[in-house]
Amino acid sequence: MHSERCDVLIIGGGPAGLAAALELKRLGVTGVTVVEREREIGGLPRLCYNTGFGLRDLHWLHSGPSYALDYRRRVESAQIDVHAATTATEWQGPTTLTLTSPRGLTTIQARTILLATGCRERPRAARLVPGDRPQGIFTTGSLQRFVHQYGQQIGQRAVVAGAELVSLSATMTLINAGTPVAALVTEHASHQFYFPYSLLKWWLADRRGSRLCAPARVSRIDGQRRVEAVEITHLDTGQTETVACDTVVFTGDWIPENEVARMAGLDIDPHTRGPRVDGSLHTSQMGVFAAGNLLRGAETADVAALEGRHAAHGIAAFLAQGKWPQQRIPIHVEGRVAWISPNTLSWDERPPSLRHFLWRVDGFYRTLQLSIVQGERLLYQRSRHYLMPNRTLYLEADWLSQVDPLGEPVRLIAR
Ligand SMILES: Cc1cc2nc3c(=O)[nH]c(=O)nc-3n(C[C@H](O)[C@H](O)[C@H](O)COP(=O)(O)OP(=O)(O)OC[C@H]3O[C@@H](n4cnc5c(N)ncnc54)[C@H](O)[C@@H]3O)c2cc1C
User: Fold this and answer.
1) pTM for the predicted model, two decimal places
2) pLDDT value of position 252
3) Are 329 and 406 in contact, with CB atoms under 8 Å apart?
4) CA atoms of 232 and 234, how far apart (whole Å)
5) Atom of ligand 1 minimally distant from the CA of 118
6) Which of 165, 189, 251, 368 is the most buried (most CB within 10 A)?
């Protein structure tokens, strides 16, 4: 086993990890190493062939691969140390990790670690969909890999489980691969495409005769060697129907890639399922930061990249001063709130990345009253209108100055 040392070890070479590495370089921090499981850095965007990447971080509209290439070139020209095809597999100490690669095992002892391991879609098995186990079942990620990386034929007719933004990306990939989409199936009361994506839904789905089944779920998959049909259960009536298709794509329903975070014993938020972080992206363990989609599932790549940059400032401050927040107050969510990120407050609280908290609701609501309270004290109250699940909302941070850093947990309530 080799052993190495570095100042900052970044686990994950996606937009969050690479943007953090570049910002650290800009801030004059040396000794940064990026570790990436795949053979190439760039993260999920490498395989997302749609346009729509980079507006807020690179100020340019890229396709996924060109966005990933842009970051790769910047990292190369900044001469940042990258270990590709290398997976962080085990913790040997609070900031020491074992890496596994074709070269063997390496232990890296770092002064600080940034976890930026992203998120993944829940596959069929995790959604507990019963039935046969034939070929033709994908997630958006595996579909895009099949189509764009391996140039494989997909099928003749598909059903897409999910009706959120990434489901449109899957629909577009299917159409480009010559596979019409019979139906989009969502367990929510309606689809979750808002303007301008609702126009894209019309272009990709409505005008091609794709049905929307809502609220409904794919409740069974049939087929011997290849998918032959899916059973769809309509959740409002309990009725079932069988839709003939040879391809099923499970989209969205993201889960943070939190294995490395869990192995470290970091506090995990039960709602986001990512590590609990404060506004500066400190986790519960001294020396370990977290950023990007690991925090709460999929946001756009520029949000993840800006969080990576934001984390770089916290890391640089920690390396310079050695201070770590001791008092941490959790933000609990109640009522119709699905999650909030960041979800912890600490004494040296900085406004979060983008100067806003991100939060989501669990269903469709015309109006909700949003309140933030600490004990009996009301810190913030405002009405929000026309809310839908799977759409990120922004919460301003101006109430932070009223939080008692030694007080009770803060509660975000939507009713
Ligand atoms: C189909 C699809 C379409 C999308 N379309 C858009 C779009 O149009 N516009 C947009 O802005 N965003 C889009 N996104 C979202 C965007 O891809 C993500 O927001 C972004 O990639 C998140 O960056 P990240 O760095 O947090 O995570 P990721 O990009 O997922 O990067 C995490 C990296 O960590 C690595 N890793 C994980 N565990 C380990 C480990 N143990 N050791 C070493 N490495 C590890 C992974 O291999 C991965 O490369 C899309 C996503 C999908 C799936």
Assistant:
1) 0.96
2) 95
3) no
4) 6
5) 27
6) 251
